[in-house]
């Protein structure tokens, strides 16, 4: 799992994975292994994003 350190990087990656998941889901169905893989990646990225946001708020 790649760990990104900036919310902008994570936000960009979230959008890319979300778009890929939507495209694959539309063409292969939501239960296709690649769609599931994208969903898991998206979950991991969202967790990283929320953790960075929480850390950033506590530093202010």
UniProtKB/TrEMBL annotation:
GO molecular function, one term: protein dimerization activity
Pfam families given in the database record: SpoOE-like
InterPro entries cross-referenced by the UniProt entry: HLH_DNA-bd_sf (IPR036638), Spo0E-like (IPR018540), Spo0E-like_sf (IPR037208)
Source taxon at top rank: Bacteria
GO process annotations (BP): regulation of sporulation
Identification of the protein by name: Aspartyl-phosphate phosphatase Spo0E family protein
Organism phylogeny: Bacteria, Bacillati, Bacillota, Bacilli, Bacillales
